Write the structure tokens for this entry.
Amino acid sequence: MDYNDIKRLIDDMGNSKIDSLKIEFPDGVKISMKKNTEKEVVIAEPTKIIEAGVSVPPAVKKQEENSLVKMEETENYKIVKSPMVGTFYASSSPKKEPFVKVGDKVHKGQVLCIVEAMKLMNEIESEFDGEIAEICVNNEDIVEYGTPLFKIK
């Protein structure tokens, strides 16, 4: 498998509606891809790819290791994603306290934030019970459909 084949797989994954893909080739090369707001590609046996003629710089190997750690950390969290494109607001008005802060206990149905779309204020409710582990966006950030807003443990 050469660089162009891998690039084509990444592009096809990015243009498709699937969220994850795992491939194991007969020669032992394993490729696992998972969509998030960041594209992550995890190659289980990079030595096989090096043998195929694509050299992997040490910085890329380090980045892959960090991606693996990051992926393991996020597996323990439930993620509340934006259901629409709009502007993220942590509170109902600039002078009020945010709906939630890191460490707050939340329950299913509790309002976590507001996403303004086309001058409509849409309350985003928690889909899970748990504790806010991370707020992934800043107040007044523009968010896309599927952007992670909160991590709940």
Summary: Residues 77 and 153 are 5 Å apart (CA to CA).
